[in-house]
Amino acid sequence: MSAVVQLPRGRRAAFVQAERRIALLGTGVVGSAFVARCERLRLAGVPVPGFAWLANSRAVVEGGADPLRALAGLGDAPRRGGAWAAWVEATGLRRGDVLVDATASDVVAGWHSEWLARGVHVVTANKLGAGAALARAQAIREAAEASGARYGDAATVGAGLPLLRSIRALVAGGDRVLAIEGLLSGSLAWLFDGDPGNRPFSARVREARALGYTEPDPRIDLSGEDVRRKLLILARAAGIALEEEAVQVESLVPAALAGAAADAVEPLLGTLDAPMAARFAAARSAGTRLRFVGRLEGGRATVGLRALSAAHPLCAGGGTDNIVAITSCRYDRQPLLIRGPGAGAGVTAAALLDDVLSIPRGPLSTR
């Protein structure tokens, strides 16, 4: 809603449009890349909204005229207690502002629908909004529809590849999605690209983490949980109301590693080596390749490691490529294939900013 300014009699009242602002939650690898990309595009003349503030789990600072300096100053900012949501409440986001969620926080994701209901646009790389409980995903959709605020989620699957956009366009055009199958994790695609031979699998995991391909806790990737969330997001975009527990997941994480505290993960990564060496040896003997696949068909959803022939479309990529095959009534004989880089801070940050810039300009509240 716009604030109306009362002008002297005889003059037409004018609508005052407040300047849209960005508030960033999460200043890790992706969040930092997002700030840097905003500044590069702003210097190139792109009208990127300014930053109201930036926050991580410990502190919050005003964005000001130099958000890169503000980002660097977060380490010296006074530590603040309380939950993420309480900080957001205290900063006075107004209708039309954009909350960018670059966290992996369940608490933050739980507030997405509340912010949308207030007319605050939400742009997110956090999969725990639309990729967690079905009730939460439905609340997000309903809040956005009711308020008119945008929910930008392109960065949640495929690091901005046109996966969600394509699925939604098919459904909006009257098509029906019959199956979705693909490599949905850039980190797992990279880990299974080729045959690591005699190199320990744990060494590959450490390298993927150092490159920023995996989550800070690589068990989230190796457990299949990350792929499960992405498959849920795609299914729900296709109009399939899939519950979390409906997805059958094969975890690659041994029991000892799965039950370890966060600070004990590193020394236990070696427990991956023997079982994974056996899987690679079996695939090599059969002339197949290992790929970690998410699949949805006929209401049945599965996530896990599959041995595929070299000619299979999901073996065509390399590196961190995501490859997704979408079968629909329109694409029934030959699926629609979408392929491209599915991991990395740069492409994820670009997807976030694309969603921010795609929000139409409109009357904003000055309250």
Helix content: 25-40%
Number of strands: 14
Structural class: alpha/beta
**For the CA atoms, what is the radius of gyration?**
22 Å
The end-to-end distance, rounded to whole angstroms, is 10 Å
Please state the oligomeric state of the protein chains shown: single chain
The number of helical segments is: 15
Q: Approximately what portion of the residues adopt beta-strand conformation?
A: 15-25%
Largest β-sheet summary: 6 strands, mixed
How would you spell out the order of helices and strands? Answer: EEEHEEHHEHHEHEHEHHHHEHHHEEEEH
Widest sheet: strand order?
5-4-3-6-7-8
Q: Please, what is the average pLDDT?
A: 88
Unreliable stretches covering 5 or more consecutive residues: 1-17
User: Which term fits the overall shape?
Assistant: globular
Cofactor: a metal cation
Family: Belongs to the homoserine dehydrogenase family.
Catalytic activity: L-homoserine + NADP(+) = L-aspartate 4-semialdehyde + NADPH + H(+); L-homoserine + NAD(+) = L-aspartate 4-semialdehyde + NADH + H(+)
Enzyme class: oxidoreductase
Give me the secondary-structure topology:
Blueprint: E1 3-5, E2 14-16, E3 21-25, H1 29-43, E4 50-55, E5 60-62, H2 67-72, H3 84-90, E6 98-101, H4 106-110, H5 112-117, E7 121-124, H6 134-147, E8 151-152, H7 163-172, E9 177-183, H8 186-191, H9 201-210, H10 219-222, H11 225-237, E10 247-249, H12 255-258, H13 265-268, H14 273-286, E11 288-297, E12 300-309, E13 321-328, E14 336-341, H15 345-357
Parallel strand pairs: 3-4, 3-6, 6-7, 7-8, 10-12
Antiparallel strand pairs: 1-2, 4-5, 9-11, 9-13, 11-12, 13-14
Helix pairs in contact: 1-15
